[in-house]
Every structure is written in C-alpha cells, then in structure tokens.
Amino acid sequence: MSARDEVLARIRGALGDGPPAPEVPRDYRTGGDHPAGSAALVELLVDRLEDYRALVVRVDGDAASIGAAVSKALSDQEIRETIAASGVPGEWVADAPGLRVDDGSLTPRELDVVGAVVTGSVVAVAETGTIVLDGSPLCGRRAITLVPDTHVCVVRHEDVVGSVPEGLARLDPARPLTFISGPSATSDIELSRVEGVHGPRTLVVVVAGGSEPLGSQKGGPRTRAGGQARREHEA
C-alpha cells in the first residue's frame, strides 16, 4: 500500500458510513409551451438578446443569406482581420476580410490583434437569451470566442429552445461549454459600466431560418439598449 492509499484509507475509516444520499425530486418544469424553433421562441430570443445590447440580424436559413449577413456585420464593425471556427461553412465567411480559419495554433496574444471571430452555436435558450457554445468545430475553441473584440455568432431557428432544462438536455456535459448572454460587460462599485472586459465587446447574432426574416429588414441589425451583460460560465 502506498502512502497515498494509506492516508485515504485512514480518512475513510474516520468518516465511517454516512447516511444514504437523499432522493432529489424531479418534478420541476423541464419543458416550455412552444416547440423548439417555433416563431414564438425565436421572437423571445431576439427580444432578450436585444435587451442585452447584442446586435441581431435575422435572415433566411440558406448559406448565401447567412454569408451576406456575416459580411455586412463585419463591414459595419470595420473589421480588417477575421478568424473563423474550423467547422464554419465556407459560404458563411466567403467575403470575410483577412480571413483565417482556426487551426489551434494562434496564441491569445496573436488573437488579440484579430478584430472578429465567426462561429456557429449548439443551442440557444429563449427565456434567458443565452447562446451556448460547446467547443465543437462549428463553435470553436474557447480562446477564439473570448479574445477578439467582436463575435459574430450564427443561431439557427431549430436550435432555439424555450427553457434552460431543454437546452441542457441537448448538451454533452463532458464538453467545454460556454454560456453567452449578451456582449461582455461589468460594472464597478459605482455602477460604471465597462464593456469588453471578460470577452467580446460587441456580439452580433445572426438568427437564421424560415423563408422570410420575421419582424425586421433582411440583413439589417436591430438594436435596443438594455442593462444586462454577457456571461461566460464553464460547465
């Protein structure tokens, strides 16, 4: 027996047999009133995102429409260098300025000079206005989504769910999950808001799906000031 095993055995002996773990009730709400991807959920997600000061663009679900929206968003932000997650379709970033597809080699210092990152997403929760990235090729590694000053993220209608339990049911808990609710922002003790501290200062969400963009001009960002901030959590 190694010294480590001996120490652990003594700890187990001192602790003795504990009481059985209590059964956790599972009668909480796990679903919403609308199916994933429904118009009502998309509208709610857009409302939450705009309240968090994200820029929202609503387009058709085809690659050409998404690519046009991404290109316009990058142009509006005057981006000169762009990095894309390795699994992002080429049509989405065909006109991205100074494009580099991430191969994992760029350091945080090198990423700091990149103006924007383009990624997809794995799920979006309408009730909380939260977008989730899972580190997959479509979403990219965490560093590329936190260091550049602008994040252009594509969310498809079919990936929009109503509640957090519905979103979690779609996720692999073993993956590096990042939960994003608006652009990065924080406040000091005097409530002075500072943006871009913990992640991208600007979040552009391209909401893609349907035959017509609902409730807005195609390809045009809709914005509204709010009081919330981007939140990144590891799970």
Automatic annotation (TrEMBL):
Region ranges (Disordered): 209-235
Pfam families listed in its UniProt record: LUD_dom (PF02589)
InterPro entries documented for this protein: FTHF_cligase-like_sf (IPR024185), LUD_dom (IPR003741), NagB/RpiA_transferase-like (IPR037171)
Transmembrane region(s): none
Name of the protein in question: Lactate utilization protein B/C
Domain of life: Bacteria
Gene3D superfamilies the record matches: NagB/RpiA/CoA transferase-like
Domain LUD: 115-207
Species of origin: Intrasporangium oryzae NRRL B-24470
